[in-house]
Design a protein that fits this description.
Elements lengths: L10 H14 L3 E6 L5 E4 L1 H7 L3 H4 L13 H5 L1 H8 L3 E8 L5 E13 L2 E10 L1 H32 L6 H11 L4 E8 L2 E8 L2 H4 L5 E3 L3 H8 L5 E3 L7 H10 L3 H4 L5 E9 L2 E10 L7 H67 L1 H29 L3 H4 L2 H16 L3 E5 L7 H22 L4 E8 L2 E8 L6 H4 L4 H12 L3 E6 L5 E8 L8
Parallel strand pairs: 12-13
Antiparallel strand pairs: 1-2, 1-5, 3-4, 4-5, 6-7, 6-11, 7-8, 9-10, 10-11, 13-14, 14-16, 15-16
Helix pairs in contact: 6-7, 6-12, 7-12, 12-13, 13-15, 15-16, 16-18
């Protein structure tokens, strides 16, 4: 421990000591007069920071080195500095001698200098930090926008059952600006353009084909499911030469006026479906980030293509199943009625000669059978028209089904409809199909002698009641495993309706379908 501390500095030594610190400080230090706002003194760091010489900087008014947007911080703050009695920190924008701006953090302290009130400003250039923060913020915003756009693209493409190839290119343009782009699908040994954006002449010729020259070309084109960026399509680079060779007679049109190109494969797992070609007029325009974005969109496009393919197959299968159902109905109902009518017609001449009363009863049966066949045919013809089940009043459709059943099994079917009912198309179809299936079950299994069909409309609720006096069944044991009843329940649930089935052996069956509008329409 030093028992003899150095003697205290005198005033002159203190001033010299502070001057050395002032001159050597790495941060800018500016002393300005509170009243005039002019620079009284400044250290070399502050002078160099602003780009002046010492002679130019001393005596400058703050308006010469502080940006107009920040001057109010310094013209209004001296009193605040004095009243606080401590430092005042403010972010600001200062000016270089040439007028260019830079960002600073300033700490201001009230001091006495040369016998007058002044402000000492310690200035630190934070331009690099501010720019880095701004760049980071911009990148975060860009990344957020891109992720939101990709999510929206995913929802849009995944929800499209029918393929809309132009939509894929439109969605891609939200993320990547391009001069023109094409969506191709692989068809055997050729790529077929389904959509073009940016080239009106080519848009008018869609679909056009680009023929592939062997499996090696295909492997090269799809590049192990990675985008292929070509900086200059007219260079001697192997990728550029491959592109010109591949496009062949389409080169003059697809590459006219462009420099950069990017191939993006469209594939699911190991199955190549197609590709996206993207062009831009600027050389080396497409970046690795562009490639990542384009590949993400291409993957979503692959899902959309697969969805469209599956939807097309489902439609074809549904058409086959509908034809089979109609053929079965023709066989079960119409053919049976016509066959029975034909037998009666064959024996009528002989029966008339032998027993006219019996012949008259047979004529009644013949009329019933022909009317039944006619009703069945009307029902089938209605189903063959896509709009028939939605454009026709539900009550009329129920009468049609009731007449068909009555003629088919020769029992009375009473149809009661309180008033005209207007339903959403999918709900009306559900009511029709469930009634149709219920009546088919009655014809096959019930052995009923009477059937009642009633459509009730109470407030916003619609109820369909179908009752028969047939042999019934034990609902507790049968419903859970009965295929037809299960299908009706599923159809009702899909339409947002409830289905109730009550039955007892020997006491018939009643089916009730209940549906209620979410928001009833106002009556004008």
């Amino acid at each position: 421990m030093n028992e003899n501390p150095p003697p205290p500095l005198n005033t002159q030594d203190k001033e010299e000591h502070y001057r050395i610190i002032f001159e050597a400080a790495s941060d800018g230090m500016i002393i300005s007069d509170i009243e005039t706002g002019r620079v009284v003194d400044a250290n070399p760091a502050a002078i160099a920071m602003h780009g002046f010489t010492r002679e130019e900087f001393i005596g400058l008014h703050l308006s010469a080195y502080i940006h107009p947007d920040s001057q109010h911080l310094f013209t209004q703050s001296p009193n605040a500095v004095q009243s606080r009695g401590g430092p005042l920190d403010v972010p600001a924008v200062h000016l270089h001698k040439d007028g260019s701006s830079f960002y600073v953090d300033v700490r201001r302290t009230a001091i006495q200098f040369q016998g007058r009130p002044c402000v000492l400003s310690i200035v630190r250039d934070v331009t690099d930090r501010i720019n880095a923060e701004r760049l980071l913020h911009e990148r975060v915003e860009l990344h957020t926008r891109e992720q939101a756009t990709l999510l929206e693209i995913s929802k849009t493409l995944a929800s499209a059952l029918e393929l809309k190839p132009g939509l894929i290119l439109d969605q891609l343009r939200v993320l990547i600006e391009y001069t023109h782009a094409e969506l191709f699908v692989l068809d055997g040994t050729a790529m077929v353009a389904l959509a073009v954006r940016g080239l009106q002449k080519l848009e008018e010729t869609v679909p056009f084909r680009i023929h592939l020259k062997g499996p090696e070309t295909l492997m090269r084109l799809f590049n192990e499911h990675q985008p292929d960026r070509i900086g200059d399509v007219w260079s001697t680079d192997p990728s550029a030469q491959f592109l010109r060779s591949l496009l062949d007679d389409q080169v003059d049109l697809l590459l006219k006026g462009v420099r950069a190109w990017m191939w993006v494969p469209v594939a699911v797992k190991n199955r190549v479906i197609g590709s996206v070609g993207v062009a831009h007029v600027e050389k080396d325009y497409f970046t690795a980030h562009h490639a990542d974005l384009a590949l993400t969109v291409a993957n979503q496009a692959a899902i959309a293509l697969i969805n469209a393919e599956l939807f097309e197959h489902a439609q074809a299968l549904a058409a086959v199943q509908e034809r089979q159902r109609l053929a079965q109905n023709l066989h079960d109902a119409v053919n049976q009625s016509l066959f029975s009518a034909g037998l009666i017609a064959d024996v009528l001449p002989r029966l008339w000669d032998q027993d006219q009363d019996q012949a008259r009863r047979s004529l009644v049966d013949l009329r019933r059978l022909t009317r039944a066949a006619q009703a069945e045919m009307r029902a089938l013809l209605a189903e063959l028209r896509p709009s028939a089940l939605t454009d026709t009043d539900l009550g009329d459709l129920l009468h049609l089904l009731g007449n068909a059943l009555s003629g088919r099994i020769n029992i009375p079917v009473k149809v009661k409809v309180a008033q005209e009912v207007i339903l959403p198309a999918e709900i009306q179809v559900a009511f029709y199909r469930i009634c149709q299936e219920a009546l088919n079950n009655i014809a096959k299994h019930a052995k009923a002698s009477h059937v009642d069909i009633e459509l009730k409309h109470e407030g916003t609720a619609i109820e369909l009641h179908i009752r028969d006096n047939g042999r019934g069944f034990d609902s507790e044991q049968t419903i859970s495993g009965h295929y037809g009843l299960g299908m009706m329940r599923e159809r009702a649930e899909a339409a947002g309706a409830r289905l109730f089935i009550t039955s007892q052996p020997g006491h018939g069956t009643e089916l009730v379908m209940h549906w209620k509008k979410d928001q009833p329409k106002e009556v004008v």
